[in-house]
Amino acid sequence: MKERVAITGIGVVSPAGLKKETFWANLKRGESFIDEITRFDTALYPSRIAGQVHELDHYSHLSSRLVKKIDVFSHMALVASEQALQDAKIDLTMVDKKRMGVFMGNAIGGWLFAETELRDMYIEGREGVSPYMASAWFPAAPQGQITIYYGFKGYSKTIVADKASSALALWYGAKNIIDGKNDYILAGGMEAPITPYALLSSNSCGQLSKNNLNPKTAYKPYDLYRDGFVLGEGSGIVNLEKEEHAKRRGINIYGYIKGIGFSSDGYHYSRYSPKSEMFEYAIEECLKDAGWSKKEIDYICLDGEATPMGDYLETKALKNVFGKGLKDISLSAPKSMYGNLLGAQTALDLIVTLFSMSNSLVLPTINYQMSDPYCDLDYTPNVAREKKISKALLLARGRGGINVVLAVEK
Amino acid sequence: MAIKEEVLSAIADILDVDAAKVTADKKLYDSIGVDSTEMVELCVSLGKRFGVKIATNEITKFSTPLEIMQVIEKKK
Lengths: 410, 76
Fold this sequence. Notes:
Chain A is an alpha/beta fold.
């Protein structure tokens, strides 16, 4: 990318807080926000712990008339969007709504609404299904609801690419700004996998931690005894605009999206290639796109899948790309505190990284106790560290090897 | 409760809107901005409540609650 795209507004709905200030204040303490799922009976689920969003209604600005028509993943996205727009101080009465777009990432759709309606269909027949089902469940529903709510008419898109969804959405959004198609873009992602059916499906993928007796310490990326990631729900949405546009408005700029690298393993429908070369290729491509040398990187926000293979391959890729230079780069997976938000993971990684930049503080990878000889890097274990961060990479890997790396700078 | 009040109250309840805004002789679109999916919801839910079958083309968002009441009464 020749130009860079400014991030001027932040909205966050997460297990660690529903406002950016709370989110950051909670995370810098290095605590876990993972708990047992109590919303429904999970006794027979292999993994029954998660990072859950509490008190969404309390923070919501939506009417009950609208809430009953949408799934909770759209609800979370609408709350995060409102925060991002207010934070970016955009006066919606003064903008050309034909030049306002929405780019969202989501992996699984709105299952709470869908599974309830499917149950009603089998019990009551077709008339038992709510007509709102048609627009509530599918992954692009939040994009649609946001554009309808604010009357945005600009080019918009939803990307479905497993855990790399919001990384791609952020990049497509940034590219759209550079191409001059929109003046403002809300970009990010949302995910709501803590529902009976979505949790069951997520369990089937075999990547979730089953350490149900110890929810606070279950998500332990890079630890020798890691047994998978823990699900999280929420939404992270940022406002994007051109750098000079933001400067002209005199608005606070949190940071910039500077580049992207992506690749596919082309190996298996769900497993990563046992070689990490395509992941490495994505990192190299990102550096090239940003115009950065390896020595310039201060921080890498890790994918942190916490599966034996995922963490090993991520470590291997980093070693192969950066070699001895890794000792000067801080690494961490802050999502170990609030869970893996699947399609929304990079949106939250971005928000964490922007705060890390402005506060010169690298958040930790928590629950790291026992080192693994195959994952032997310094992952900033357990305690945050002070460090000035100007340039950072965000790593995201979707199942089967959808590799996306985003370059972000202060 | 007279059927008129019943219909007005049912519409407010089904769509989760303030009952005071549902006016008997005003088009639903004009009074409370009903959209097409809400109309389908209204047809199905009113049908269930009043024990009749209302097709989606029998009432529209441009119908008034009075007209809806007449459709229901005719079918009862």
